[in-house]
Specification:
The chain crosses the membrane at residues 15-33, 45-66, 72-88. One of its GO terms (cellular component) is membrane. Keywords: Aspartyl protease, Cell membrane, Hydrolase, Membrane, Protease, Transmembrane, Transmembrane helix. InterPro entries: Peptidase_A8. This protein is mainly α. The protein has two domains: 10-57, no CATH class; 60-88, no CATH class. The chain is built from three helices and two strands; from the N terminus they run H-H-E-E-H. The chain has helices at 8-11, 13-36, 72-88; strands spanning 45-48, 51-53. Strands 1-2 form a two-stranded antiparallel sheet. The longest helix is centred in the N-terminal third of the chain and has 24 residues, at 13-36. The chain is flat. The two termini are 25 Å apart.
Length: 89
């Protein structure tokens, strides 16, 4: 076989590491916020006059889309994710 081994840059492994770092940072920030901030608007931290940091839950999809539904939307979006993953592989 005359195929050359892929370099680190060509293989895309560095992007995997970046994704792992971002994922861990996301989990860490959520952990810190959940354990150190009070819930709701009354406990907000004003960063700028138009930008506040506050701890709230979003039970819907994007921007609370379908948040008033009974929970079926979680399974719908999980199914869509599996179908898309299957189509991409």
């Amino acid at each position: 076989m005359s195929e050359k081994a892929l370099t680190l840059k060509q293989s895309g492994v560095r992007w995997l590491w970046l994704a792992i770092v971002i994922f861990l940072a996301d989990i860490g920030i959520k952990y810190v916020v959940m354990n150190n901030m009070g819930y709701g608007w009354a406990n907000r931290i004003e960063i700028l006059p138009f930008f506040n940091l506050l701890y709230v839950h979003n039970y819907g999809a994007a921007f609370s889309f379908l948040s008033d539904q009974a929970g079926w939307q979680r399974w719908l979006f999980t199914g869509i994710a599996f179908v898309v993953t299957g189509l991409l592989t």
